Amino acid sequence: xxxxxxxxxxxxxxxxxxxxxxxxxxxxxxxxxxxxxxxxxxxxxxxxxxxxxxxxxxxxxxxxxxxxxxxxxxxxxxxxxxxxxxxxxxxxxxxxxxxxxxxxxxxxxxx
Amino acid sequence: xxxxxxxxxxxxxxxxxxxxxxxxxxxxxxxxxxxxxxxxxxxxxxxxxxxxxxxxxxxxxxxxxxxxxxxxxxxxxxxxxxxxxxxxxxxxxxxxxxxxxxxxxxxxxxxxxxxxxxxxxxxxxxxxxxxxxxxxxxxxxxxxxxxxxxxxxxxxxxxxxxxxxxxxxxxxxxxxxxxxxxxxxxxxxxxxxxxxxxxxxxxxxxxxxxxxxxxxxxxxxxxxxxxxxxxxxxxxxxxx
Lengths: 111, 240
Prior knowledge:
The structure holds 2 protein chains of 2 kinds.
Chain A: H1 3-28, H2 36-58, H3 69-85, H4 90-110
Helix pairs in contact in A: 3-4
Chain B: H1 9-22, H2 24-41, H3 46-55, H4 59-70, H5 75-85, H6 89-96, H7 107-115, H8 119-128, H9 134-162, H10 168-187, H11 192-211, H12 216-239
Helix pairs in contact in B: 1-9, 2-3, 2-4, 2-9, 2-10, 3-9, 4-5, 6-8, 8-9, 11-12
């Protein structure tokens, strides 16, 4: 695929993402933020995001799929643990979890 | 979360910028560094990588774009995968926009605000904006979002340029940073309906994905979200 083809592909990808955002604005204008429909949509958003994230950890695609599931789950648990241990420090938890993952990956590569 | 407020829209904008620098900016920078490396590895150009960060502005979709482009998938498959990976923006936008309804009367701006939403900036808006007066919400959210986006662009460029220097385990760890970070963000959600939805979604995500890689995510949101809503409703009734 040449450069122009790649840019066209990108524009289609951008449009196909924005469709959801734009549709969201249209629909949000018609629902009451205090109402039950709003509660349902919030639940859907949270469930969908949680599903996406747990799938990225348990069943990732691409290069991450080559790593052992133990490493991914263990590192995530450590990250959450660090977060709660250190007064809910998100930065420390995130980089703590990633550091554990990095160390495990390096150890496996070396053995 | 202590309820804080600001004197002027300018102060709210600055407050959003400041809050973003506490955590989100660094996480966005680091994770987009991972994407930049992946993008180069996948054969994308620097320009395409950066425009995808700013305009798709949703890492799962961007990753799908880069990976499928690299494997030479058909155009329709790439577009559908990116779109499905980003379908979360529909319920997210529907849930978020009512926060700005009173403060931003010109509806055209709502379409711009929607473009700024990522999981990061959405979570910040949902957490902070309900406690702010209406006219300060959009400035706070825009300040928060714009620095995150700039950090994302800087991260993408950094990752792209340094991809050849990084060992593969480092790139991989940066890609892994995303799910770890979002797990922690959601571990901090307190309201009951949200917690129930997150737990059901976390279990349902991988299960539904195995049933259908293409539609599993949508099914998780629709079925898991509906179930969470019903459970919360039953619990609410019981306490009344």
